[in-house]
Each structure stands twice: as C-alpha cells, then as structure tokens.
Design a protein that fits this description.
It contains 17 helices and 15 strands. With 434 residues, the chain is an alpha/beta fold. The strands form 3 sheets. Strands 1-4-5-10-9-8-6-7 form an 8-stranded mixed beta sheet, sandwiched between helices. A 5-stranded mixed beta sheet has the order 12-11-13-14-15, sandwiched between helices. The longest helix is centred in the N-terminal third of the chain and has 18 residues, at 18-35. The chain binds histidyl-adenosine monophosphate (HAM). Residues 91, 93, 122, 124, 129-131, 134, 136, 138, 140, 291-296, 314-316, 318, 320-321 line the site of histidyl-adenosine monophosphate.
Length: 434
C-alpha cells in the first residue's frame, strides 16, 4: 500500500448530506414493500462461488467476468479459512433461494414474500452508473402458489410503485416471455439455426458467446452483432400454447392496473435462471447504463438447487441508478439537532455538559460545542449546526442560576431558571415543538 490513501475503484463513500437522501429513499421503499406485504431478509454478503455459478450460469457474463472471489492468499497461510471458494455476492436472488431452502421456508404455509436492500459486488469496468459496489432493493416471491401470473404482475406493479413514489418519471417497462424450459430449448435451437450461417458477421466475443450460450448473443451491445440480431424475425419463434396463455394473463393483469409496458421479444436477460416472464425497466435520464432494474420468473431454480418444486418471481432495482435518474431539484431532507449548547468559558462548560446530558436523557436531540471561543464564533458554530435553538451559558448566567435560550427561527431570546438543579422549566420549554 502506498502512503496515499485511496478508495477501491468503482466504490463510493456515502456521507452527509447525501446519506439523508439514501435514508429517505430506503424508508419510502420499506413503506411500499410493507404495503405489498414483503418481509425483509438479510443474507451474508458472500456465499460459495458455486452457488452463483449454478444459478446464474457458468457462461453468464457475471460469473465469467465479474465475480469478486475472496482472496486465496489468506487461505494459503491458513488452510482452514478456505476463502478461495467464496465470492462477494454479485446479486441476491441465488442467496435468497439458498436461504429459502436451508431455512425450510417451504414448510411455512403459502408464499414467502421476501425483500432485501443492500450492497452487491461486481468486478466491472467502472463508469457512470456502473460500480463495483452498488446497492439493490429487490424482492423474491417464492413458494407454493407462486406460479400465478398475477404474482408476475404484482412484482412489476411493486417496482413501478417504488419508482413513482420516489419521484421517477421517464421510465419504460420492457416485457417478454421466455416460456417454459422446453420453450427456451426450442428458442435456443431456432436461434442457433438462424445464426449458424451468419456467425462470421458477429463480433468475435459474440462468436464465442454463440458457442457457450446462444442467448448471450441477444444481450450483446456490439454494433455488428446488433445489426444481425435486428434482422432476425424473432417473433416467429412462438411460445408453446400454455406459455402463451400464461403470458397473456400477465399482460392482462398489468393492463387492469393501467401499467404501460412495451413488448420486446429480444429481451432475454443475461442470467440462466429465468423462465416465462422477464422484464427490464429503463430510463432516458441515464446514459448508456440505462437499466434502473430488472427481474422475472425463475420457476426451476429452487428445485435445481436442491429445494422443493416451487415457482418464484422477483426483481432488483439499482439504488445508485435511481438516485442518478431522480430530478435534481428534489428537496433532500436532513436531520439536525433541536438544541445546540454553547459554554462561554471553562467554568460554565461543566454545567453546559450536565444540561446536554439531561436533555439527551429526555430524548431531546442536542449537541454541545466542545471548544471555548468568543460569543461570535460560538454563535456561528451554533448556526452551522442548523439547530432550532441554542442554549448559552456563561459566568454571568452561572452566578444567577439561569441559562439563556435563543430561538433561531424567530430570533426571540429568554432566560430560564435552573436554580437548585431544577430543570423543570428547561424541559417544559425544550420538549415543546416549535
Ligand atoms: P440485474 O439485471 O443483474 O438483475 O441487476 C438489477 C439492477 O441492478 C440493474 O438493472 C441495475 O440497476 C443494477 N446494477 C447491476 N449491476 C450494476 C453495477 N455494476 N453498478 C450499478 N448498478 C448495477 C439481478 O441482479 C437479478 N437478481 C434481478 C432479479 C431478482 N431477478 C429475479 N429476482
């Protein structure tokens, strides 16, 4: 490590006053999640690497290129640690499913409707809206009866509700269905046939994607590849009859809630676990990283990881991207002490200290200025604290058994008695809302 401190690339510190925007956003999200009856779940921020490979797919970009494995070095020094088989979570669906299985949540009656808010980690090349540590709010509805199309519509409605409540306007929902595992297989075979003779027209990386998993070609951002994809008549790769009926019901349920969406038959999503409904929410207020969030159904994952045969559907929204897309003129709420206490000299400080403590014991938010300086300088600091009122104690007040309390809002000032350590008047006044 060089002497110069630095923060790891693609990470950020969230400090005052920005932290209040995060808290406001998180509180609003929790309120809405409660309205839809989702319960919070907290899983470790790292898991066995294999869990991610088995769920998202060995050939997915996330597993192939973006996994942050925990260092092998400590494991070499201490074989017991075996850190090298662990990775920081790049997303949370796999961890929630792992937890659902291990905690036997399927033994509970009905659906498990779970949500999380927390950091995720991907070793991507950082740019605006693309970080190595970022935060997601997400939900996963797993369990018996989870295979209702109304649940697909519910999670989409919930993500829209969250975005709208936070003040987002310019976003679009893209919707598609991949169908059942069998439909996916048919689609993959169709795609292979269509692309086989045009493979040299694809970008080099997409040629190897074609070999590994043909769906990945559809995710490509490369111009050459996109031109080929755009020329494909993907609509013709019809879903099976049951999947079509299911997808129609999802769309009807969304229309019943007046939720607008665009059908996009090329939306396949980059992770293996999806079946049936997939969706992505994009915003014109973001640059090239325009996805605010995404999600879909993953009916086979729980069973595939060793759990019961139950359906599941969920989504995750990127919190940094939401904040980037929010109108910049939004007022940020911030928290300040109600009272700021200043002592004008050393002798008065111990009395100021006692008063600060008494106020705190009565749940009145307050702070004290730890340095002794001129009245002017202390008042400047009191002002900077953005407290509503300031308590001033100097020798003069101390001798007379009083303190001065000044209201910053209307400029009024009054003296109150604290003779014989009787703080009744002080507490009456300070607990009164301004
Ligand atoms: P995802 O599309 O990989 O899906 O990520 C969801 C959202 O997380 C993205 O749309 C984006 O807003 C945000 N995000 C992803 N990577 C980054 C990054 N490097 N920097 C900043 N934000 C990022 C999933 O994670 C699935 N687990 C969603 C899901 C839940 N599907 C079903 N249940």
């Amino acid at each position: 490590m060089s002497n110069k401190l630095s923060i790891p690339r693609g990470c950020s510190d969230i400090v005052f006053p920005e932290i209040y925007q995060w808290q406001t956003v998180e509180n609003l999200m929790r309120e809405i999640l409660h309205v839809y009856n989702y319960q919070e779940i907290r899983t470790p921020i790292f898991e066995e690497t294999e869990l991610f490979a088995r769920s998202m797919g060995q050939s997915s970009d996330v597993v192939m290129k973006q996994m942050l494995n925990l260092a092998a070095q400590p494991a070499e020094k201490n074989a017991e640690l075996k850190l090298s088989g662990l990775s920081l979570r790049p997303e949370n669906t796999a961890s929630v499913v792992r937890s659902y299985i291990l905690q036997n949540l399927d033994k509970l009656e009905g659906l498990s409707k779970l949500y999380y808010i927390g950091p995720m980690f991907r070793g991507e090349r950082p740019q605006k809206g693309r970080l190595r540590q970022f935060h997601q709010v997400g939900v996963e509805a797993i369990g018996p009866f989870a295979d209702s199309p109304y649940l697909d519509a519910e999670v989409i409605a919930l993500s829209v509700d969250i975005l709208k409540t936070l003040g987002l306007k310019n976003f679009t929902i893209k919707l598609n269905s991949l169908g059942s595992a069998e439909d996916k297989e048919n689609f993959s075979n169709w795609l292979r046939r269509e692309l086989k003779d045009r493979i040299l027209e694809l970008d080099e990386e997409d040629q190897s994607r074609f070999e590994r998993n043909v769906f990945r070609v559809l995710d490509s951002k490369n111009k050459k590849t996109r031109a080929v994809i755009d020329s494909l008549a993907i609509e013709s790769s019809a879903l099976g009859a049951e999947s079509r009926i299911y997808f129609d019901k999802v769309q009807k349920a969304l229309k019943d809630m007046n939720i607008d969406f665009e059908l996009d038959s090329k939306l396949v999503r980059g992770l293996d676990y999806y079946t049936h409904t997939v969706f992505e929410i994009t915003s014109t207020s973001l640059g090239s990283q325009d996805a605010l969030g995404a999600g879909g159904r993953y009916n086979n994952l729980v069973n595939q990881l060793g759990g019961p045969n139950v359906g599941a559907v969920g989504f995750a929204l990127g919190i940094e991207r939401i904040l980037l897309a929010l109108p910049q003129d939004q007022e940020v709420l911030s928290i300040h002490p109600d009272i700021y206490v200043i002592a004008l000299d050393e002798k008065s400080f111990s009395r100021a200290w006692v008063i600060t403590n008494i106020l705190r014991q009565h749940s009145i938010s307050c702070d004290i200025c730890y340095n002794i300086a001129s009245v002017k300088s202390l008042m400047r600091q009191a002002n900077k604290s953005k407290a509503e009122r300031v308590i001033i104690i100097g020798e003069n007040e101390l001798d007379r058994g009083v303190i001065t309390i000044k209201n910053f809002q209307d400029g009024s000032q009054q003296e109150i008695s604290i003779k014989n350590d009787n703080y009744t008047q002080l507490l009456e006044l300070t607990t009164e809302r301004l």
